[in-house]
Structures are given as C-alpha cells and as structure tokens.
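Re: flavin mononucleotide structure - here you go.
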Amino acid sequence: MTSDPHPIHPSHTPTGVLRLGVFFQGVNSSTVWRLPESGDQVAWDSFSRIITTAQRGLFSAFFLGEGLRLREHRGVPLESDVAGRPDAQTLLAALAGITENIGLVATQNTTYNDPVDLARRLQSLDLISGGRAAWNVVTTDNAWTGENFRRGGYLDHADRYTHAEAAVEIARQVWRGEEIEHVGAHYTVRATGRLPRSPQGEPVVFQAGVSPEGRDFAARTADVVFSPFGDRERAIEFRRDLVERTLAAGRDAQAVQIMPGAELVLAETDAEAEEKVRWLRTQQIGPRQALDLLEQYWGRDLSAFDPDGPLPDVDPEVVVSGVTRGAGFQFEKAKELTDAWRAEAAAKGLSILEFARSRQGSRGGTHVGSYDTVADELAELVRLGAVDGLNITPWLVPGGIDDIVDHLVPRLQDRGVYPSAYAGPTLRENLGLPPLA
Ligand SMILES: Cc1cc2nc3c(=O)[nH]c(=O)nc-3n(C[C@H](O)[C@H](O)[C@H](O)COP(=O)(O)O)c2cc1C
C-alpha cells in the first residue's frame, strides 16, 4: 500500500505499512526480571516463546543485541545488566529451526569481528533459514569492550565507521561470491566467497548508530536503520535528515527504512495504561538502580546519598575512563550533563529515585495508552512516513508481547497499516524491500 507523497520530505513516499520487530535485549534496565511471571534471560524457553509469539503476530523480525563485555561499576556488574548475553548467531541458528517466516537479526560489531568470517557465518544463517537473516551493523562504542580482544580498544569514533564501511563492503563481496583483494587502513583481505546465494540473495543490512558519521554510513550502505528516535517529533526530524543523506549518497529516498526502538505499555483504557506505566517504573528502577544510574554518569561512589533526596550536590569525576566502565558514556560531557540533570530535577522537584524513573523508557520512545489510542498513534506515524516500523523491547520476558499480538496487531490491521499475512518466506519480502538484482 502506498499513501500520498508526504510532508516530511518531497522526495519521500511513505510505505503506509508498519513492520514490527522484537528486540530481545538481555542485559538492560528496562526488562523486569523479578516478577513471578518473569522468565530467565538465558533460558531457551524465553527466546523460543517470544519468537513464536512474534511470528504468530506476523512480526517481520526478531533481533538479538550484542554485548561482548558486561558493564561494570566499581568492579561489580551493573545492577541493570543481570548477566551476559549468549551469542546471537548461535541462538538464531537454533531459532531458525522452530520458525518459518520471521526474520533473524544478529547485532554484530565491525570493530572486533573480522569481516570474511562474520560474512560467512551470517550467510550460513541466511541459507539454513531460507533467506531470513540480517546483520545489524554496530560499531560498539567503548574501549572497555575492546579490552576483551587481541587488538584492544584501538579505534576512535571516526575510524570505527571507516572500518565498518570496509567490513560491510567486504561482507557483500563474500556474499556475492566475488574475489576480494582488499588493502585498507585497518586490514588486508584476500578471499573468495564460496557459498551459494539464499532465496533472498544475501542477508539484509540493518545499522544502529546515529552520529553524523553513523547516519552517512547508513545512507550509503544500509537497508534499514534501527534508530533511537521513536517519538513523533524526533522521528520526523530523523527521517528528513536521513532522506537528505540518502539522496546525497546517490540512492533513492525510499532506499533506507527506519525502525526505532520502542517500549509499549498497553491496557484496555488510557487510564489503566497510565497506572500501569507508573507501576512499571517502580519495578524497573528501585533505590539501588537509581543510584547506579547516576553513578554511571557521576563516575563516583554516591552510596552516601539518599535516593529520596535531591540529586547529588557534588560534581562528577571527569575522566576518559574511570571507575564506571563500558557505560557507553561520553565522559568529557559529564559536567555539562549532570549540571543539566540537577537543574531539571530541582525545577521539577524530583528526588533521585523519581528522576531516575522519569528517565526510564525515554530513549527510543514509549507508547502508553489503550490498544486503540496506541494503534491510532502508530498508524499516524507510519502514514506520515516518520517510521517504517518499530523494534519493540518487551519489558517482560517471555510474556511481554502477548498483549501486542492479541490486542494491538488486530487493531493495526483494522486501520489498514499492518500486514494480514507474511508476504513471502524471506525477510527482504516481509520488510517490503526491493529484490536484489
Ligand atoms: C538502537 C541502537 C541499538 C544498539 N545496539 C547495540 C548492541 O546491541 N550492541 C552494541 O555493541 N552496540 C549497539 N549500539 C551502539 C552502536 O554500536 C554505536 O556504538 C553507538 O550507537 C555509537 O555510534 P554513534 O556514535 O554513531 O551513535 C546500538 C545503537 C543504537 C542506536
């Protein structure tokens, strides 16, 4: 279905179809692991139940993130991180065997993986799944992770994307069975792709990382961007910017789809959903997690501060890499950021605990409301062309998408913005991407 040319950018036409993905994050501060109905974040049952439910709801894709080193604070894993994540490709290969249509997206970084080996493994997943594999290309933002690897934390921000672009180019050459002679700044490769092509040709390429370099990289190379901009205003702004960059890269305005991350809190009525989100925040963030969050930015021990009191009246420790490790945080901006937070909390009269809860769920965008309210909101976003889909992080595992599949999907179908069947066996088809030449 195609709607009118839209007001966001004159060259871009909205697809008018919402594609859903589910992002099984594992380590994070948004999934509640302590309820009686909470599962186990490394148990097979958690993965198999979520992906089976998602497929029942005609989701396009099941995503796994990648965390190669558990984040720590003062020598102890972050309260929010629970435990490490199993390897994405191992899990997806097993999940391919119990599913038929849903896409299998592996987040894999280009900074520490070697492209020929990675490409061959992704292509293998694509073959055994009948053309359902995708690579979510990330660069991974911390030297802390790098310490796990022989080459160490060796790439600064701009270099990471030069490296990523070479890695994707080499991977595509492997997939296309080309002879590769790559001599680059970071590595030299001589190889020839030897596997046959899958029913979708080759894995779909997602990209996650939204700095200017990350956006240009996506504009040149990606099929889909997994963005952190889910609320209306930022989604529109991001679409406009990405279309500009995609056109500048010589590609069609429609070439790159956008799926922001999202948290959905749904109920029969708006009032019940508002009540539910207040309860959810108390489950996600307790006094210990609230202090933990601030300590990641302050970079120092804040255990002497009362979670029910105001934000700490001390300055952060501004260092390149301090006691808080791997938080993905811009340490040099610590002072600016913590000053802004203190001002915000003071203006709103929020305690440490209340402030931490108020920040929860804010990054990708949270949709709170009755099934009908949220269906209307999402239908509008996709008709406008602000997004092509959503990548939902369930706040409960493994039952966290049951209400979406049972109550939201039918309402999206009623509004004509959601598929009524899988378009075909491959991910490329189910994302509405053009077939490869
Ligand atoms: C929505 C989203 C999801 C991401 N998921 C992962 C992940 O699972 N593993 C990882 O190492 N990095 C992940 N990243 C981080 C990227 O690897 C990247 O390092 C980071 O966004 C910094 O790049 P940038 O400056 O271009 O934004 C994610 C980023 C975004 C925006």
